[in-house]
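Lecture notes, unit on protein representations.

Consider one protein chain, 270 amino acids long.
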Amino acid sequence: MQEILFLGAGNMARALVGGLVRQGWPAAAITVCAPHAERREALAAAFGVHAAPAQARVITPGSTVILAVKPKSIGTVLAAWRGSLSQARPLLISVAAGIPVASLQNALGEALPVVRAMPNTPAQIGAGATALFASAEVDDTQRQAAAAILGAVGSIHWLEDEGLMDIVTALSGSGPAYVLLFLEALEDAAVAQGLDRSCARALALQTVLGTARMAAASEESPTSLRHQVTSPGGTTAAALAVWEEGLRSLAQRALAAAAQRSRALAPGKD
């Protein structure tokens, strides 16, 4: 099994490390390098992986390096690791939102093989959704390696146009927070109508979970499935009439705002 080196120990690194280990990836083949001792040691304790300080080290040829640091730290981190990366020429998988492949290669000073990935936090339970874009330097073997790593924590979807990565970030990257906000709103609304909070939460969670599974298992569109559960003049129709007053426009505005922010994170943007 190839070695995986994580640069960073934040939420996305934790989601990927946890997901990989739970899906059977050998913990001994994973190393987490991060400046915060508490975070990296927490990952080591939770999943049995190796933990090391953030200082650059020798990288084993044929390994994969996952860049999982905040976008604002990309330049500093790559500058510190440039020599090691140049010598080993590993596959570099970046999960930093908004940072294009060209910016990563410019920071490295050469065109190393880079896969830009946008996973989401359900990866920690093997239910992630990840979009991938490969630079021209990525060969078939490295493409398969990236697919195996991200595929171990959920579904993967290759993009041929890197420009679409910003809307992917807005949709599936940030999407779990949207769903959680929706769950919060449903729960609070039910409690306001007199339902016990624990019951409201359980019903809301199972409703969203069950509906998502039903939609995933069906060949029909969400629109078609929605019509099937909406009787004219019934309770569902009454609620949907309210949702339709602003839900679609809110979704458009929310994704546009997230995509715009993703673009703004690229180096040289305000």
